Amino acid sequence: MPTPFAIPNPGVDDQVWSDFVQHRRAKRAPVTTTVIRGFEREALKAGLSLEQAIVTACEMGWQGFRADWYARCSPSDKTAWQRGVAKRVAEFAPDLAALDPAKPAVVIEMEAGRAARRLG
């Protein structure tokens, strides 16, 4: 029977596996088949591979991995400025914020003077 820190690598990069085992050992948390199954289950929920979940847990200093933790803490591809603008748009123009950015917007081109006359 393998020791808690020597179960076989489940198919992730050797360096990632070595780091993971070292990380768990430092936390005095054994690496068991049940632990790996939990990582696989939660990685699937988060849309990640087992290796990506293990890397995330090591990088974040987590003993385990939960999809809901990942959802709250995963980095966004938006900058802080972009998130701030989106928040302000949502506050002041909720209809505009609710538009799907993937769908093309309707654009009406018109001269400013003509538009002003039409709006009265």
Structural class of the helix and strand makeup?
A: mainly alpha
Q: Residue-averaged pLDDT, rounded?
A: 80
Order of helices and strands: HHHHHHH
- The total domain count is 2
Helicity range of the residues? 55-70%
Gross morphology is: rod-shaped
Q: What does the radius of gyration come to? A: 24 Å
Helical stretch tally: 7
| First and last CA, distance | 83 Å
Major beta-sheet overview: none
Structure description:
- By secondary structure, the chain is an all-alpha fold.
- The protein folds into two domains: 14-73, no CATH class; 80-119, no CATH class.
- Helices cover 58% and strands 0% of the residues.
- It has helices spanning 14-26, 33-46, 50-60, 67-73, 80-92, 94-97, 112-119.
- It is rod-shaped, with a radius of gyration of 24 Å.
- The relative contact order is 0.08.
